[in-house]
Design goal:
Elements (H helix, E strand, L loop, with lengths): L2 E5 L7 H8 L5 E4 L8 E5 L2 E5 L12 E4 L4 E2 L1 H13 L8 E4 L3 E2 L2 H14 L11 H10 L5 H4 L2 H21 L7 H15 L3 E2 L1 H10 L4 E4 L23 H6 L10 E7 L2 E3 L10 H9 L13 E3 L1 E2 H11 L3 E5 L9 E10 L2 E3 L6 H6 L1 E8 L16 H14 L2 E6 L7 E3 L1
Parallel strand pairs: 1-10, 1-11, 2-5, 2-10, 5-7, 6-8, 7-9, 11-15, 14-16, 15-19
Antiparallel strand pairs: 3-4, 12-13, 16-17, 16-18, 19-20
Helix pairs in contact: 2-7, 3-4, 3-6, 6-7
The protein binds inosinic acid (IMP).
């Protein structure tokens, strides 16, 4: 059984935790897009792990992990992440494989990302400033450098020279101070040597594993509405966060995929700019007051709102979601009433899916259906039928409006606070 796991909202759906649970049944976890803009949080016992580039599957020490060709890798950051795991007793050696075709995020990408955001002022995207957009830009422009280049430092330095000239010109035109060649190679040298043993042809490796009937889990980063094609462009990330990205970012063809699972919070959150019709200060203040909904990569307070079924319905269509995993149900425990945005209205007309024209999307007003709350803690519940009846009804409504089967519910950050339905 090969499963694609996607975020059905704007990222931060709690995928790290669901991936960790699904890894019980999988042999191999594969990251296929994005970079260290992602932050997957998993809590095991009293330990909390935040992973940015390494698949969360690494926390189960009998499993293997792949960083596929579709990911953009900041080598220094990845080295830091591996070393951080090693310090905590988790050794990725022999279990982590990095694609030689994955593109590299370089210091000038981060610099350009930051300078572009500054220049945009109020019109900024709200990126994580990790250089993700400029790195994918270089990939599309065919001026990127890949992990395979990094394996030969002498050649890499030569290639970098030309790239630096071009990128330094961009940095200068944006008002920044260009990096010089020596600075770049000094920072990368240690990382290149450290990462070299992990770099392989992950495409043939994955096909060998599939031939051995291994179960693969493709773990998506970010969420459907941050997808470069289907998200709220330009307030999106620079990769395909939807199910198709799992194929192009790994070299595993669509007919080898058996199931698509969509992860969604019991409410909606979003980081960065762009429309969000069900945004609500009421729910935002409540969640922030509980110390929840602060970004794991940037620490920013996330924007919060009621569950928006218009977006999850579209996510179901785009990804072919068969099953849903609902996280953070316990975040709603104290509420007397809970709203679901069932669709939007714009100029008196019903709108069922988010419009591509952001001006129209910004004019969409959420239409709500009110559900009674359960006003009791769910965090100790371990079985669907032990949930308060109002919580069960709310979850089933989420699944119905989305158009997929409810499969997993999560009621807290711990590994054991998750159950199958
Ligand atoms: P970038 O991916 O850093 O270019 O940021 C583009 C947009 O995607 C911004 O709105 C970010 O806040 C958002 N974004 C990127 N990665 C994540 C994530 O892992 N979770 C939530 N939002 C993200």
């Amino acid at each position: 059984m090969n499963t694609i796991l996607v975020g059905a909202q704007w990222g931060d759906e709690g995928k790290g935790k669901i991936i960790d649970v699904l890894m019980e049944q999988a042999d191999l976890a594969v990251r296929t897009q994005g970079g260290n803009n992602a932050g997957h949080t998993v809590e095991v016992g009293s330990e909390k792990f935040v992973l940015h580039l390494i698949p969360s599957g690494i926390l189960r020490t009998d499993k293997k992990c792949v960083i596929g060709n579709g990911v953009v890798i900041d080598p220094v950051s990845l080295m830091g992440e591996i070393k951080g795991l090693m310090k905590r007793g988790i050794d990725p050696a022999g279990r982590l494989f990095i694609s030689e075709s994955a593109h590299v995020v370089l210091p000038y990408h981060r610099q350009i990302d930051e300078l572009r955001e500054l220049r945009k002022g109020d019109g900024k995207i709200g990126t994580t400033k990790r250089g993700i957009g400029p790195a994918y830009g270089d990939k599309a422009a065919r001026t990127g450098l890949r992990m395979v280049d990094l394996l030969d430092l002498e050649l890499f330095t030569q290639k970098l020279k030309g790239r630096l000239e071009e990128n330094n010109a961009v940095v200068s035109s944006l008002g920044g101070t260009p990096h010089c060649n020596i600075e770049v190679t000094a920072e990368l040298k240690e990382a290149a040597t450290f990462l070299a043993p992990f770099v392989i042809n992950t495409i043939t490796y994955l096909h060998e594993e599939i031939a051995k009937k291994r179960n693969l889990l493709f773990e998506g980063a970010q969420g459907t509405f941050l997808d470069i094609d289907f998200g709220t462009y330009p307030y999106v990330t620079s990769s395909n966060t939807t199910a198709g990205g799992a194929c192009t970012g790994s070299g595993v063809p669509p007919h080898k995929m058996d199931r698509v699972m969509g992860v969604m919070k019991a409410y909606t959150t979003r980081v960065g700019e762009g429309p969000m019709p069900s945004e609500s200060d009421e729910i935002g203040d409540m969640l922030h007051g509980m110390g929840r909904e602060f970004g794991s990569t940037t620490g920013r307070a996330r924007r919060c709102g009621w569950f928006d079924a218009a977006i999850t319905r579209f996510a179901q269509m785009l990804n072919g979601i068969d099953e849903i995993a609902v996280t953070n149900l316990d975040g709603l425990d104290s509420l007397a009433e809970i709203q679901i945005c069932t669709h939007y209205e714009r100029n008196g007309e019903r709108v069922d899916y988010p419009p591509a024209d952001l001006r129209k999307f910004a004019e969409c007003k959420a239409v709500y259906k009110t559900y009674p709350g359960w006003q009791q803690s769910t965090s100790n519940v371990r079985k669907f039928t032990d949930l308060p009846p109002n919580a069960q009804a709310y979850l089933q409504a989420m699944a119905e409006y989305t158009g997929a089967r409810l499969a997993i519910v999560s009621v807290g950050p711990q590994r054991d606070q998750t159950f199958w339905v």
